[in-house]
Amino acid sequence: MSNGEYITVDDMSFDIKKENFQNVVETIIANQDTLNISCENVYKDTKWATRIESTFSKAGWQPEFGEEGDIEFLQHLGDMINESDDLLFQAIAPYVLPQSYIQIHGEHDGGSIWQWRFNGHTCERHYVEYDFQGHGKIVDAILKRDDVATFIGIHEDLDKLIAEKLGDENHEVKPVFTAEMLLKSLDRKPNWNRTELVNELGLTIPEEYNW
Fold this sequence. Notes:
The protein has 2 domains: 5-128, no CATH class; 136-201, no CATH class. By secondary structure, the chain is α+β, with helices and mostly antiparallel strands. It has 7 helices and 7 strands; from the N terminus they run βαααβββαβββααα.
């Protein structure tokens, strides 16, 4: 991923307490060469909230603050990430509230999904795998649906099977589903909910994934 990867941020539960702002700012500044950023003029403002907003933005993330002044969300500035983002979160991990996570949908490997997870000491990536080739019953159930075209976008292998059923290899439908939204998608339909979808398709929800 040295050249970067296009991603979207799908979900997040993130918290940095305001009493840790100074530690985070000083950590990012100490690692600015590794992160390939410049933190010049960060200390021009006397408020730590402004300083941490400045340092995060230089690293490609815009913090949003809650009512108590803590950071409760990070907006990704741009549409690509690289190793610097991993290094950033590893560096500040001791100051992020344990059980925080940032969920990413990437472009590689047919659309990989992972979470940066924080445990109060470190930050690691945790991947969610979807093996459609190994789950014939799930694939068969999807292919039998009248609205099968709306499942385009979950996985490239599944897309090929759907295109074959539709009899048009060039069939294009704006993806309604991404893999991480599969269990949530039919909530929009009057007579469906996630539990019924799980039962019908025989889905097994990965324990490490927070649906």
